[in-house]
Specification:
With 381 residues, this protein is α+β, with helices and mostly antiparallel strands. Helix content is 40%, strand content 17%.
Amino acid sequence: MVDVVGCDRTEPAPGCEDGHVHVSGVGRTGNWTVTIGFRRAPQALPHAAYLRLAPASTAGTADVLTESVINTIDFSRVLAADYTQHLLGPEAADRLDRLWCLRPSEGSDDFSRLVATLHRRSVTARLPVRQVLGRILQRGPDRVDDLIREARDRGLLERHDPRLTYLPWPPAATGEPSLRVMPPDAPPTWQMRASTTGADLSDLPGCRDFEFHVGVRFCPSDQKGIPSSYLCGPGTDDRPGISAYPRSLEIRPATWHAGGTTAELTQKILAKLPLSLVLALGPEVQTGHLTTAMTTALTGNARRGREHLQAVATVHRFALAHSFKPHNLVAQTWRVTLRTAQGWSRAARREGFLGERSKELEALGPQPPSAFPQVASAQQR
């Protein structure tokens, strides 16, 4: 079971205007905490618009936030617990999680009991039942109607409830200036900025309605539990190097354009966000390795199939065009050994994505001076 902390309505962060809820004990190890923030919409229930994922403990631990950690988190369960806590209260959230532990499948008696419990709680709270069920179960209105009908057919819900007179949900604050609408064909600008606590990323392709903050922590490279791929500064014989690794992640609505102000975080949206790319970009931006960050952005951090080999060829040509060592830049982009990078380049040549070095240089034409001198020292690592 997960631990749901009560809703705090004092959070001023974007996306948390209607409060936020903490859920701890998530992930395979149970050492991660998810915070979901809620935003008020006009004449509608609040919706999730903010997410923060961080280790539950902060002292003396080296919890590295990776894509595998994110994949072990059941966001459908987290969102259900948060919505229940926010809309129906802690008792309903605790009961929901106990029922959720049974892993009920849709169409089963246990799932119909879950629907009936949420239905009665919504009626007692005088909230619109179908909207509440849609938020908690992450289902559309037609599917919610089917679930309610199944619960009634099993005798778990009354067919007519005289208390179904709902209070209208208070509208959101009005009078705010209208934000500009982002044209659908406008190219993304890949905004990347380092701050005192981590890297801020916004206007990324495929997720322009959200902004990201990757919390980055620095530590000695010989610290236990930190993969060598996060090395950002080499050491000496008597002194270890420095590693920078992602430790937390925040997803915020992009409040600078109209689409971001209405963006809602759902299980499907979270599955589509390029979180692996975001986690790969964070340490590179924070440590000032902007060329590696740029090549990571160009390739999307792909690792398999023909798409991956095509990305290797792209980074290889980028390195040649800016007078870098291609194999070194490929190794830095995917955080692999130089030998692995050389093997990938050979595979890209075999598949026809990359030609011989002389032909590639001839196709590029005269090479201007490198615009990224800060990478010269990193190439020698």
